[in-house]
Write a structure and sequence with these properties.
Layout lengths: L9 E5 L2 E5 L3 E7 L5 E7 L4 H6 L5 H36 L1 H16 L3 H34 L6 H24 L2 H22 L5 H5 L9 H16 L9 H28 L11 H10 L5 H23 L1
Antiparallel strand pairs: 1-2, 2-3, 3-4
């Protein structure tokens, strides 16, 4: 079956697991230390005005990013809590007197989850993304201005240097993060997520051996989106209409243009995915794939199994909800 005749799915890696977003439900599967796979199943709600915004080019990218940040934070929080419970259980096993107290505290915390708390986690996820994006946008512009403001006058050259600084900071951040054990495993699950989606799009049966044959890189990945924001940003900032004279003008112009850069970068991501089977044009997506060499790692078989379990559960629930 061709890719065009299949539903398009996305997902994200979480701590010791993978989340997949379906048409009607988002499902996260997490492997616990006793090898049990547990699930978080969250039905997707439809808000009419949001759905309308997601059909408007440029606007849909920003809306989709905010929506995925909000929903993704809930699933990431679930995986972190599950991981923390397993770590606490190991510690409690060393000190049995504390086991009952820890179990009771965990029970209270879980029973305390409410709609307002879930909303709070979602808001925190969105705010974290916005804050991080603002810092990543403003810092390179400020650094370039301080180091090279008086070296030459060409504004395009300054913008190119700003983009280069941004890429260097991004690569350094990802490299050092990937050296920590927990982030390395997160990146392995990221690779497992991509492999499952690619195997599904290729029409292969989702077995561990079949999935492992596929690439851990995927054109639709959010990592590709990040590198496109750098490239698109350099082009937009270089337009004469957005000229600047001082470092402060430069920074606030970048911040004001951020929604446009994000929206256009999302469209570029869609174009490169649509053109990935076209000779020559497929290379447009290569910068994003190169970045994924850092943000994904080759997964182990048990990690692929978790990804398959998450995807299959999502598909199963999606089909059930479609009939209801």
């Amino acid at each position: 079956m061709s890719q065009n005749s299949k539903s398009i799915y996305g997902g994200q890696a979480v701590i010791e697991g993978v989340m997949f977003a379906g048409k009607h439900v988002n499902v996260t599967a997490v492997r616990r230390k006793n090898d049990e796979i547990v699930y978080l199943e969250v039905p997707r709600t439809t808000i009419n005005w949001v759905q309308k915004l997601k059909k408007i080019p440029l606007v849909r990218g920003v809306v989709g990013i905010i929506e995925s940040s909000a929903k993704g934070s809930q699933h990431l929080n679930f995986s972190m809590e599950t991981y923390a419970e397993d770590e606490a259980a190991e510690e409690a096993a060393k000190n049995p007197k504390e086991a009952a107290a820890i179990a009771e505290e965990t029970k209270k915390e879980k029973s305390g989850w409410s709609l307002s708390m879930i909303f709070g986690v979602a808001v925190a996820g969105v705010l974290s993304f916005i804050f991080g994006k603002l810092i990543f946008t403003a810092a390179p512009a400020a650094i370039e201005s301080v180091l090279f403001e008086h070296v030459f006058e060409n504004k395009v050259g300054h913008n190119l240097l700003e983009g280069l600084i941004k890429i260097i900071l991004l690569l350094a951040y990802l490299y050092f993060m990937s050296m920590t054990p927990i982030i390395k495993r997160l990146f392995q699950y990221h690779g497992a997520e991509h492999k499952v989606i690619t195997a599904y799009e290729a029409g292969d049966e989702l077995t561990v051996s079949n999935v492992q044959k596929h690439s851990r890189l995927h054109y639709r990945c959010g990592s590709s989106f990040i590198i496109f924001t750098v490239i698109v940003g350099v082009i937009i900032y270089s337009l004469p209409i957005f000229d600047w004279e001082t470092i402060w003008e430069r920074v606030y112009i970048r911040i004001l243009l951020l929604p446009i850069v994000l929206g256009l970068s999302y469209e570029v991501l869609r174009w490169t995915n649509a053109l990935r089977d076209v000779p020559v044009l497929r290379y447009l997506g290569y910068p994003g794939l190169w970045l994924q060499l850092l943000t994904t790692k080759e997964p182990k078989d048990d990690q692929v199994a978790v990804s398959i379990a998450s995807f299959n559960r999502m598909r199963e629930l999606d089909q059930q909800l479609s009939k209801s």
